[in-house]
Amino acid sequence: MSEKYRFFKGGLFFVTMTVVGWVDVFSRRRYADEIIKNLNYCIDHKGLQVYEFVIMTNHIHMICAAEDGDVSKVIKDFKSFTAKEIIRLIQENKRESRREWLLYMFRYFAKGTSPKCEFQFWQHRNHPVSLESNHFIRQKSNYILYNPVKAGIVAEPHHYIYSSANPDTKLKLS
């Protein structure tokens, strides 16, 4: 694997976390709010520093670092916990019209991964890109901020509730 897509201690990274099969889970506010809640936990208790973010319907982009320099460990813990929590929320949500289909998809993607793993929620790779210049940081920041605009969800970046562009975001930005 290329060095371009690896975490290293002390870096600032553009990270993408994608739901398996590009399943549109975060189109439901309940699940996107769970992501915000857990990112805030990682900020408060694990030293995650988030500078820019966007939660799209099936993936998350962030520019982030970690106080102790180990972003990889924080992201691993975040993905592990949120996968279990969102699966649990789906299972318990009697009003989720896609419940059976979602659980089927997450079981399907878990096949062949581990005998202990019933569901797989996140794709394994995060594609961390090291941000080593101001130009590259601005480029990735604009990509994050305009992702919902390019997707046709909103007309202006600050209108999207699950983005650092929104002044009312519930995420504790660095």
From TrEMBL:
One of its GO terms (molecular function) is sequence-specific DNA binding. The keyword DNA-binding does not apply. The chain crosses the membrane at residues 6-27. Pfam families: Y1_Tnp. Keywords: Membrane, Transmembrane, Transmembrane helix. GO terms for biological process: DNA transposition. The keyword Plastid does not apply. SUPFAM superfamilies: Transposase IS200-like. Signal peptide: none annotated. It comes from the Bacteria. Residues 8-147 form the Transposase IS200-like domain. NCBIfam families: REP_Tyr_transpos. PANTHER family: REP-ASSOCIATED TYROSINE TRANSPOSASE. This is REP element-mobilizing transposase RayT. It comes from Dyadobacter soli.
